[in-house]
Amino acid sequence: MPKKSLLAFLLCLLLACPTPLATLAAESDMDGEVLAPAFAVFDLADPETFIYAKNPDRRIYPASTTKIMTCILAIELCGDLNEPVEVPDVATRLKSTNTLMGLKRGEVLPLIDLLYGMMLPSGNDAAIAVAYHFAEDVEQFAVLMNEKAAELGMENTNFVNASGVFKGQHYSTARDMARLSAYAMQNETFRKIVSTGEYTVPANEARSNELHLVNTNRLVSDPEDSKFYYEYAVGCKTGSTEKGGKCLVAAAEKDGVTLVAVLMGVLEGGGKSERIRRCFSDSKMMFETIYETMYATVTAEELGLSSYQAETTVAHSRLNDPGNGLLQMFADFSGQSVTLPGEVIAALQADSSRTTAEITLPEAGVSAPVREGDVLGQVTLFYGDRVLFSGELLAARSIEAYDPADEPSPSPAPAASPSPAPQNPGPPNPGFLRYGLLALPVLLIAAILIALVRRRKQH
């Protein structure tokens, strides 16, 4: 079968039989394939749904993957990534069993250099320097770490130091570390640091030599011909302690889909070097399997989402505008494509209205005049937290600006009526005088009779 026909067949099969990712996590055969006793793999767009998982709630010792929290916390707390940090003496007196960046006593260097020194070669000295910079000591910085952990819903985690050196009360779970990693990987500065293979810190007054830092995550830093190098790797952090075993949080991005694998507590399976190599190869294997079998690339047309319409009210439009200033806007997503899990593709094809839109228009709104086809703003289409398509919002018609001439003419004032001339009352009515004179005697007689009656009653 030709390759194109095979790919088309596989895509049809994937779309016809989508398997919920949550079901895959429960039914996967990765339990026997992955060496780590506790692990979880997820899509960054849906971090609470595990694609593969085993013992995600088992207590583990996170070792230097702890530095994920230290790094993201420092990024959020700092006012400037280049702010100077003075290295405390305690950071330069660590035993040789520690992984080190190579800091010297009295050294002052930008915070960003310390973050690279902490996340690439896993420098415990850099982690301590960061902790002292933002708190009085490591213990107080751990308080900040635990506050952030609670904020992120890391219910089964407790940090007691910034570097991850083994302590019995310094623990977490694969699920909690997944939540932390999902949060940190959304920060562009963090993502840039952990996706860097090598970094050079220049010499300074306290240190005459440059520091050449190499990422311990071989998925990122190995030569391209290495079996551990993964071209889509974008982070994140290794970890290792005698009692906690080998740990790895790995991240990859392909076709707009970011996957994160959290592998914890590898204490068995060959020598120490072999165990961390298995973490690299196991995460790479899971990434490749997921990308190849659970995701497919589809166009906007195939999802029934090739266009989008919205409306807005245009200010200062003409009074005689046929739509009273109401304007239809549209975006054309034709030709755009997106890579999605099979279950999401099936859901959208069954009901394309399950999307949400984020529209960006000028802060002051849209004002006339508007010409048909004008770019008015931007729209991004989502399915849950997944970005599907984005494009420009265009005006569907023209709207003219307000014209004072459209105002109705004022009605003319009515003409003033002439005041009526005062009327002469004329002579008194003779009929009125006649009847008045006739009634007068009658009234006098009545008064006399009333007076006589009252006098008789008195006697």
Structural class: alpha+beta
Helices, by number, come to 13
Q: Note the run of SSEs as H and E.
A: HHHEEHEEHHHHHEEHEEEHEEEEHEEEH
**Most strands sheet:** 5 strands, antiparallel
Report helical residue fraction: 25-40%
Radius of gyration: 42 Å
Silhouette: elongated
User: Could you tell me the strand content as a percent range?
Assistant: 15-25%
Mean pLDDT: 89
Strand order of the largest sheet: 2-1-9-8-7
Report the strand count: 16
Ends: how far apart?
A: 148 Å
Low-confidence stretches: 1-20
Provide an overview of this structure.
It contains 13 helices and 16 strands. It is elongated and about 145 Å long. 33% of the residues lie in helices and 23% in strands. A hairpin with a 2-residue loop joins strand 1 and strand 2. The N terminus is likely disordered. The longest helix is centred in the last third of the chain and has 29 residues. The chain is of the alpha+beta class. The strands form 5 sheets. It has a 5-stranded antiparallel beta sheet with strand order 2-1-9-8-7, with helices on both faces. The protein has a 5-stranded antiparallel beta sheet with strand order 11-12-16-15-14, with no helix packed on it. A two-stranded antiparallel sheet has the order 3-4.
